[in-house]
Amino acid sequence: MGRENILKPTIGNESLHQDSNDNGVRILNFATPKNLVVKNTIFPHRNIHKYTWTSPDGKTHNQIHHILIDRRWHSSVLDVQSFRGADYDTDHHLVVTEVRERLAVSTKAAQRFDGEIFNLRKLNELKVRKQYQIETTHKFATLENLTDDEDINRA
Hints:
Layout: H1 22-31, E1 36-38, E2 53-54, E3 61-62, E4 68-70, E5 77-83, E6 94-99, H2 107-110, H3 126-145
Antiparallel strand pairs: 1-4, 2-3, 5-6
């Protein structure tokens, strides 16, 4: 995969090669209509951290393994590079991706129960704590008296 300007929405300026070969064009033809980004070509690293395959003679290096991600999530990938030290008796190098985890907050969890905010510090007051215990006991007693086909919310 090369650094051609026409391919910029899908690739970056940091590819190991200047021009795309047939396999690079095939990856781009796969990624472009699916709105994918090739993240290996985005991050600036020394060439030894870009190539992912070394020929058996040890003289030819290529970047043949790629990380593709949907454009919507591409900012979650913080870095991509290959590590030559992971030796598994192969001429391929380990490609490692650093990803930021983003969690969505549920709107139900963010809502307050019946519009009330619970102030648990008030339970330190003896009068409030006893009132809470009485109300809780009555609620559970009412629930014990319900039959299986009655509505729980009625209590």
